[in-house]
Amino acid sequence: MNVGAELPGLSVQVTRDQLVRYAGASLDFNPIHWNERFAKEVGLPDVIAHGMLTMALGARMVTDWVGDPGRVVEYGVRFTRPVVVPDDAEGALVEFTGKVGEVRDDGTARVDITAKFDGKTVLGKAQAVVRVSG
Amino acid sequence: MPLDPSFIGRTYPPTSTYEVSRAKIAEFADAIGDDSPLYRDPAAAEAAGYPDVIAPPTFLTIINLASINAIVADPELGLDYSRMVHGDQRFIHHRPVRAGDELRLTTHIDDIFVRAGNDFLSVHADIETVEGEPVCTTHAQLVVRGE
Fold it and tell me: What does the sequence similarity comment in the record state about its family (chain B) (predicted)?
């Protein structure tokens, strides 16, 4: 494993359908994630995706790459911009890329993740530490 | 009204025990579109060295967000929930979460401060089994947008 190595990217069309499903699975029923009227009342352009869903999808790219999800020992992100999800079949396209930022002596590596929606990053300082040996 | 800084250092002990089920792990994996057999097939999990199916890295948001919501609902803290956004989130896994785990969560308020007219609240939670085995530590920052 080398610093700078790129992970296979992941592109996800996040739809309203997926937001409802994720709300139920995560027990996060905040109406800004499914109720357009409510979202607009609080000043959002439309329904937005759960930041935690975007975070989970970023982890999926890492676990697809590392194989065993149990090797993710640390994972953190900042939520910098909302992913606005229109009420149509395509939803919002979120594109994830990642590369190895550091290989450590303790058998772990740091993966730096980028998540883009509408040409802009929606996660900041998104980093996962994975156990790559042992 | 700014948040009450006297809440810094406050600890919220566990109020319930959360039992991780195979069904909830599979439901969560479905919701994030992840088809890994380690989330669904106990035999596959066992072959990978786990006693049962394991959970995705952000699965504990289920109990973590609930605990945060319980804190921010405290009227004495003075937080306007309608203006609150999740600033950041981190999970430090001491071992993978797995089906059958009975987990208890203790939340701590680490910091409260004002920056650029917004209130910031930093919390962390220690999640361990009922036997006292550490499973995960979570850190979150919540931002209450200024009026």
Answer: Belongs to the UPF0336 family.
